[in-house]
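Appendix B. Chain record.
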Amino acid sequence: MSTLLNLRNKCDDSEIHLLLSEMGYPLEIRDRKVTAILEEYQIHPEQPLLGLKLHEKLSGLIGLRLLPGDEAEIRHIVVAQENRHSGIGRQLVFRVRSLLKLSKLTAETDSDAVGFYRKLGFQVTSLGESYPTRERFRCVYETGS
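Structure tokens predicted for this chain:
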């Protein structure tokens, strides 16, 4: 059985730091980037950080920015390497959407993850090359769409 946890007050936990390190940041900036991400969630109450534990191990996490009304933006989502392609990411997205009663969920991503959002029913729009040689996409999921 998987458990969804509020990680906001546990941002100093090494298990959370390790999981965020799997997001693919270059080695030379990885620790600084993960520390900055965790500080952002500690400082901003409108940005929940939630994790999914499976068999007592943190298997995935999702960080959001809550927007006016019943909308949110996915800021970060990561699944432990050994749990990828097992439905953890899908669980995170849909459990958070249900828990927070969201009618609209958005994300911005690159070509590496755009397929994940498409499979979940997000509408995908290209934003062009926001970074050199990296196409970015806006992904939107609306209840009833």
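Further analysis of this model is presented in Appendix C.
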